[in-house]
Amino acid sequence: MSKARAVIISAVILAVTLMSAQAQTAQTGATPAKLSATEQMIKDIKNPTSWLNWGADLRIRNEYFNNLLTLNRDNPLHEQDYFRFRARLWATITPVEDLSFSVRLAAEPREWMKDAGYTPMRTSPTTGRKGLDMREGIIDNLWVEYKNIAELPLTIKVGRQDLIPGRDSLAGDGWLLADGTPGDGSWTYYFDAVRLKYEFKEQNTTFEAMGIAQDPRDDGWLPTLNNQNLPQGDQREKGVVVQLANTSHKSANMAAYFIYKNDDRVSIHYPTVGDDADIYTIGARINGLLDDHWKYWIEGAYQFGRKADPRVQFPAGSSTASRDLSAYGVNARLTYQFNDKLNNQLTLSGELLSGDDPKTRQDEMFDSLWGRWPRWCEIGLYGVAAEARIGQQANLLRLGPTWSIDPIKNRMRFVSSYYALFAMEKAATRGAPGLFSNDDHFRGHLAAAMVEYTFGKHMKGHLWGELLFPGDYYEHQKMISFLRAEVMFTF
Length: 491
What we know:
The protein has three helices and 23 strands. By secondary structure, it is mainly beta. It has a single domain, classed as Porin, CATH 2.40.160. A hairpin with a 6-residue loop joins β13 and β14. The longest helix is centred in the N-terminal third of the chain and has 26 residues. It is globular and about 65 Å long. It starts with a helix and ends with a strand. About 5% of the residues have low confidence.
């Protein structure tokens, strides 16, 4: 099946379902207060007893990108096209009040329409295979949570668990904490961790702490089905996160945090790309509503410690031995909410992440820690693979606006963005040879757009597109593209 045909099929399926959903919405009108017979049956099936809740979902994606990982169209694997079929099944048991156990299983087979550019279907740096890649099944979540311990506002959660930006206050917006498994491309994002949360409710203050122990091997802690030795990360990682947050004022929600991360290189890749490092991060953020229209978010962090990165290549003869780390980052945005029927919003975003200066003996490259996920775009995630590793964004200045609108309330959402991208340092010290000029700061212009539609309680989908017009920071200036069609079913 050709690329064009695959995308057309995905778009047609999405469009047909969209029209069907619109027709159904027009016929049914407002949602009734009482559950329909079908929804009541689903609820009864998912909650057969007061102590058991279970569910499942299926995510189908077609992703196509060109020149994104290779940054060079002369590479035979510059064009990638594949389908992803992620299925998950979960259950939560609450034997007594405030005590819960949960388990979730996940698998994501893929169908490669073009020669695969990365494991396990890649056979060499320039050769891949097409066809079905069954991959493996994994225990995606396995945790126990105990709330109100000793009748105190204390919660402890132990085991394999997710940390979701916007839901879990410890994650913030996911700048440094969101994805513990960046090596599998959003198939999973769990942390093997212990979390503690204590709420000082009268003071509107929360103290949170988290201990993390991530193994880069897919079966490092728990067994897998049909093991493929797929790396979940780049190195063995341990860490501690401590945060104190206060929400007394809507105009100034404040949080201060400390993160320690230890990286231990292991031989799971060839060549080995993992770090040996001890990274200490001190950071703070403030966000809030200035009035009915304006809201903001400002976050900054400073990093110090020691790091040995085997990917340092520029200038020639550079040492890959351990160096002192001194890096910084700032992430900010300002949003104007029109408060109209279409929920129009305009946001101006800015981000600054320090880069490694080849003229010093220190390492100044900012480390994204566990924030290696598509925070603001997919090209920003995958496009740095040849420069450092997937999602390891650094040496970056990003500025640009975003506009969002809901053409159909509670149904359709449209988002478009533009960013001007620059490098803080001309030199890509970890960059693959021949892909970076090492002589210019301008990374390029990036444009992105997404339309999302919620068909109903159990189905939603989106179409996503991005284009990067590379600047002279890169050796090759051919356009980079990313396209995705997705449908998500939830039971």
